[in-house]
# Entry
Amino acid sequence: MRISRYQGKLIMLLIWLTALLPAFPLLGVMAIFPKPTGGVACLEVWPQTTGMPYAKIYLLCTFALTYTIPLPIMILIYIKIGIKLRQAIKEAADRPGFTRAQATKRIIKMLAAVVVCYALCFLPFHTLYFMMDFGGYKST
# Structure
């Protein structure tokens, strides 16, 4: 299946809108407070009127949108790309341009490295916020 130029632009627009989605609630809850030591701090002030844990709900939604949903999608898409590239290597094994086909092995390794880096780089960020919202950890 080939994606048309219009479909590609639409997909990119949807990806960008999805990426911006987690930031919108923060526009309404961020507040600036003076620090006792001087300067200012920007903090989240979630409404307390309904008893709903909005900060925790926001954290869980953000975690889902920025980590738990994209990571498996990346893994599945990169596995599919890797399978296609391996098929290309097998088909080109007996042709003169085989050295070029061997370079796809490096591409497969790089795809795996991208997924591992994404998972490892965002894990501490999300862990810290989970500790702050659910574990009672206080940042200074």
Q: What stands out?
A: The first strand starts at residue 30 and ends at 34. Residues 52-140 form one domain.
